Amino acid sequence: MIESGSYRWRSRRPLALARKALSAAVAVCRNPSVYSAPLESVDARPLADSDPLERLETEFPMTETLGSYERDLLRGGLPVRVRGECNVCGHGAGFLLRSENFREDLVCPRCKASNRKRQVVAVLLSETGLPWQGSLARHADRLPQTIWVMETGPFAEAFDVQRLITSEYLSADHVSGRSYGGVRHEDVMAPSFRDESLDAVVSCDVFEHVPDPYAAHGKVFRCLKPGGIHVFTVPFHEHTARDEVRATVDNGVHRYHLPKIYHGDPRRAAGALVYRVFSIEMLTTLARLGYEVKLARVHSVRLAMLGANAVVFVARKPARQRTKSLDPVKKTV
Ligand SMILES: [Zn+2]
Fold first, then answer.
1. How far does the centroid of ligand 1 lie from the alpha carbon of residue 85, in Å?
2. How far is the CA of 133 from the centre of ligand 1 (A)?
């Protein structure tokens, strides 16, 4: 199941209440004796907790909304072996589920691609007109030919295309586009790519670590060819209107607005600081930058893409956009 292009409002309670009010009004018209019954009694009935239509979910990740397949997996305890085929390397022997964090777990034993990264591949295949249940192992030769993947390692190298560019952010002392010990450094705030030179960009949980993420999105926009796409994941609160700004950098000085959170980072022992957790604001801001934005959800038993919060974003540069008016975000760093 892959759903894209729409934000899904999960609660049907407002609709149910509207229906109740409407049916009560109709009953009053048809049968004036209803006046004698207090209308409050309609809402005084206890709602069944188990009714799937009566849910209002405000928490993320929504672990309580795991499907029956996931619940059955967890029933026997962890860890558990999960069957499925890796859509990155084609490995078919399955995955180990070690925790209830489905998004970060189910790592391929061969290419080390987590569930989240494999979801990104499914959406990239789908967005480039290929079967979303296919794999890079099978379809890499039909992908767009110039792809920048913002990481190195087996997962990134599985994008076996003619002009694959893999990179890491090393530190502020390094120069974008140069290689250091075989690793290319790219700062997403100052990428070295020419305007309109990339067919696709892939980033997996990168932008929450960028102090000014929307300026960085503007830089990626500049580098994308018209019609090019940025497929990415970030931590995302889908029920809030404003991003959670945890830290900012003003004139080179870090300011912390909320307690510091670090994500695991193979290149930094201390981890990578989270500057922001994104929200609906991200979708509207990317649209203002000129992108056509989609939110995709992926679920596949065949590919062991499981769990409730499987959200992948697609930001596409419109096909006829001209470079002159691109990059509308002011340089702030
Ligand atoms: Zn694999």
1. 8
2. 14
Q: For residue 161, what are its two tokens?
A: 């295309």
Positive or negative, the CA dihedral 79, 85, 91, 92 is: positive
* pLDDT tens column, 71-97: 889 998 999 999 999 999 999 988 999
d(CA 214, CA 282): 8
The residue behind tokens 């959670």 is: 244
User: Ligand 1 mean position to 261 CA, how many Å?
Assistant: 29
Q: Which residue has the tokens 């987590």?
A: 114
Question: What token pair was written down for 26?
Answer: 């109709």
User: Alpha carbon of 1 to those of 119, 176, 195, 296, 321: distances in Å?
Assistant: 12, 39, 35, 10, 32
User: Of the candidates 180, 202, 179, which has an alpha carbon nearest to the alpha carbon of residue 113?
Assistant: 202
Question: Which range, 95-109, 197-211, 313-327, is most confident?
Answer: 197-211
Looking at the whole model, is its pTM more than 0.85? no
